[in-house]
Automatic annotation (TrEMBL):
It comes from the Bacteria. Keywords: DNA-binding, Transcription, Transcription regulation. One of its GO terms (molecular function) is sequence-specific DNA binding. This is Helix-turn-helix, AraC domain-containing protein. PANTHER family: HTH-TYPE TRANSCRIPTIONAL ACTIVATOR RHAS, HTH-TYPE TRANSCRIPTIONAL ACTIVATOR RHAS-RELATED. InterPro entries: AraC_XylS_family_regulators, HTH_AraC. Residues 205-274 form the HTH araC/xylS-type domain.
Length: 288
């Protein structure tokens, strides 16, 4: 998703995003339906994922979304999937990214729902939904885009996902751990292992993260840490870079700069130093 999507998640039902709760029978699969109510005027924005796979449906049938991966443009159509660890991937807007409907899934159940391997996001992080949707996708898209009312579109999605529901087992504790990470913010693997009254060990945690989420617990926590630091930088507070780094669990500002380059391909100063932005000490003091 465009990285600025995540700063609106905390302000659900505000001016920028609308959340619709899933029906009871889908709550183990779908975290929520979201409508992006504010367009992003930038022609290019960093793409990111916070550990929850998403399927996004563009507002109009003829909208073809594209992403730039390491300098190469890839078109993913009007319905696309995003997940895993995204590095140096940017979305390219042909139109305002507005009224896009995003389905945010619980990773633990996402892979089972679409009958795909848990490592599906290892080599491709953004791709056309038709690649995993299976039988009935064309009928689904036809029904979806024939509707104009939001409630009708959500019903089409619910019916489609409900038809894919199967009985399968997974450790319920994983969803609890994901919620714990999101709630607490800055954590290490040791914090997770020590934070539960039930007995957890590292091998169990790593094995089940990779099996059911398709990612190691370390990579999951790295994504969450970077996202929190990015949102602090974007907020243009009075903090300097070192303060932001320490507040988000980095050893120092150089550690944050290296992580920023790893995920975006550039330093924080280069990324934020674009026309029509207002900067303060937090950005101006970032080293090249």
């Amino acid at each position: 998703m465009p990285i600025n999507f995540f700063k609106h998640l905390a302000d659900q039902n505000g001016d920028h995003i609308l959340r619709i709760a899933p029906p009871e029978h889908l709550k183990e699969v779908v975290e929520g339906f979201y409508v992006c109510k504010a367009g992003y005027p930038e022609e290019r924005e960093l793409f990111f994922n916070d550990g929850y796979p998403v399927i996004a449906l563009m507002q109009n049938k003829d909208e073809n979304f594209s992403v730039n991966i390491d300098g190469h443009t890839k078109y993913v159509g009007n319905a696309w999937v995003c997940g895993g660890v995204l590095r140096n991937i940017y979305c390219e807007f042909e139109r305002r990214f507005e009224d896009c409907l995003v389905i945010r899934f619980n990773a633990v159940t996402f892979f089972k729902l679409f009958d795909i391997n848990e490592d599906s996001f290892q080599n491709r992080q953004v791709f056309d939904f038709t690649e995993i949707a299976g039988y009935g996708i064309e009928k689904f898209k036809e029904a979806y885009y024939s509707c104009t009312a939001l409630e009708d579109r959500v019903k089409v999605i619910v019916d489609f996902l409900s038809g894919k529901m199967t009985v399968y087992s997974y450790p319920k504790l994983l969803i609890d751990i994901q919620n714990y990470i999101e709630r607490e913010g800055i954590l290490t693997v040791k914090d997770i292992l020590d934070g539960y009254s039930v007995r957890l060990n590292y091998k169990w945690l790593e094995r089940n993260f990779k099996k059911h989420l398709g990612i190691s617990p370390q990579s999951y926590l790295l994504m969450r840490r970077f996202l929190n630091a990015y949102l602090d930088l974007d907020a243009l507070t009075s903090k300097d870079l070192l303060e932001i780094a320490i507040d988000n669990g980095y050893y120092d500002d150089n550690h944050l700069i290296k992580d920023f380059r790893r995920f975006s391909g550039v330093t924080p100063k280069t990324y934020f130093n674009v026309p029509a932005r207002v900067f303060n000490k937090a950005i101006d003091t970032v080293a090249l």
